[in-house]
Amino acid sequence: MKRTLLLILTLVVSAMSIEDIAEKMAIDLEMTRAEVQTCFDKTNVTLEDLMQVGKIMNDDLQTVDFDDSALRAGCFFKCLCHKKGAMTGARVNVDRIKGIIRSVLKKEARPTLEANLVAKLFQVLDTCVNRVNSITNECEVSLKYILCCGKEMKLINRSNNDDE
Questions:
Q1: Is the pLDDT of residue 23 over 80?
Q2: Does any domain span residue 18?
Q3: Is 121 domain-assigned?
Q4: CB contact set of 122 (below 8 Å; sequence gap of 6+)
């Protein structure tokens, strides 16, 4: 099933251009398209680089040393995080990320989102920021933080599904 979803994602993404992706990301991140495009241009990240991160996450790879493709994606994420104030240097600003999440939930009129779920999400953010605190490479910090959050959320989802 995971492989099928990855194949579909690959086909969809391959049909999209960097400009399409930049537009979608700008909307999702409440940034201008120009800001997102600047990060694409600055890091020379490709769609394949971004898909590599998805593959690492889907395959639950415990990669310690990332290849150039994954690190380019990490630099792209770092650029976006810096523009949103979610990172300063090699430090993740977890309080800023939590504030962004609260704002999004409020705007989307989702205050009924289970408080327990939000608490678990915030716990994941805290856990992952502690895991990347000692890393000094900004690109590696953003990549490992995103992968950590993805992995931890998967564990929570599995746990919730097992409880049902």
A1: yes
A2: no
A3: yes
A4: 98, 101
